[in-house]
Write a structure and sequence with these properties.
The complex is a heterodimer.
Chain A (H helix, E strand, L loop, with lengths): L3 E4 L2 E4 L5 E7 L7 E6 L6 E5 L3 E2 L7 E6 L2 E6 L9 E6 L6 E2 L3 E5 L1
Parallel strand pairs in A: 2-11
Antiparallel strand pairs in A: 1-3, 3-8, 4-5, 4-9, 5-6, 7-8, 9-10, 9-11
Chain B lengths: L2 E5 L2 E3 L5 E8 L8 E6 L5 E7 L6 E3 L7 E6 L4 E6 L8 E8 L9 E4 L3 E5 L2
Parallel strand pairs in B: 2-11
Antiparallel strand pairs in B: 1-3, 3-8, 4-5, 4-9, 5-6, 7-8, 9-10, 9-11
The chains are: A mainly beta, B mainly beta.
């Protein structure tokens, strides 16, 4: 099973700042990595798939990059609605696995 | 508008059974692979199961294999998860999710339902 490690666990930032979230895989997942956003009491929402493709309706301030074992989700300028928990997920190997999440909180 | 609405959650005793449903609308259900993903209270996301578009192929996480059965009724636009021999560690919010890909599965989840809470406790 591929282990996805997200860091940091918590990121404290102010609106307008840049957020950089990391996801590291225990073995290569090629470019088969996605990012999801989850707000309290809500279902997750797909942001990025195949490492760098934005899902439908996702603002351009969200971007993803990486391949192999190291991936990054960047939010170029935090909006108030971006404060949430972010999860990465891989589909290169079975079973499908998620990272433990990074909480982006208001500083 | 694409909608996925789960139901069937509740309180069940250890060893008991429960069947979850996910009613969908706004898209051609019979064309898509579908998934169940769960989230224990305060914890992260865990993939549970998936089913192909016509129901002929299924996959399960090891933690639920042999106890849970995923199925679908394309005529009723509904996805199911039959959960037997439930354990305390199955307590979670269960989400149904559509696969991003069609007709070939991509194993990305988009969109998700709002979830239904299953609590296994005596």
């Amino acid at each position: 099973e591929i282990l996805l490690t997200q860091s940091p666990a918590t990121l404290s930032l102010s609106p307008g700042e840049r957020a950089t979230l990391s996801c590291r895989a225990s073995q290569s997942v090629s470019s088969y990595l996605a990012w999801y956003q989850q707000k309290p009491g809500q279902a997750p929402r797909l942001l990025i798939y195949d490492a760098s493709n934005r899902a439908t309706g996702i603002p351009a301030r969200f971007s993803g990059r990486g391949s192999g074992t190291d991936f990054t989700l960047t939010i170029s300028s935090l909006e108030p609605e971006d404060f949430a928990v972010y999860y990465c997920q891989q589909r290169n190997n079975w079973p499908l696995t998620f990272g433990g999440g990074t909480k982006v909180e208001i500083k | 508008e694409v909608q996925l609405v789960e139901s069937g959650g509740g309180l069940v005793q250890p060893g008991g059974s429960l069947r979850l449903s996910c009613a969908v609308s706004g898209f051609t259900f019979s064309s898509y692979w579908m998934h169940w993903v769960r989230q224990a209270p305060g914890k992260g996301l865990v993939w549970v199961s998936r089913i192909n578009s016509d129901g002929s192929s299924t996959s399960y996480a090891d933690s639920v294999k042999g106890r849970f059965t995923i199925s679908r009724d394309n005529a009723k636009n509904t996805l199911y998860l039959q959960m037997n021999s439930l354990r305390a560690e199955d307590t979670a919010v269960y989400y149904c999710a559509r696969d991003l890909g069609v007709p070939v599965a991509k194993n990305w989840f988009d969109p998700w339902g709002q979830g239904t809470l299953v609590t296994v406790s005596s």
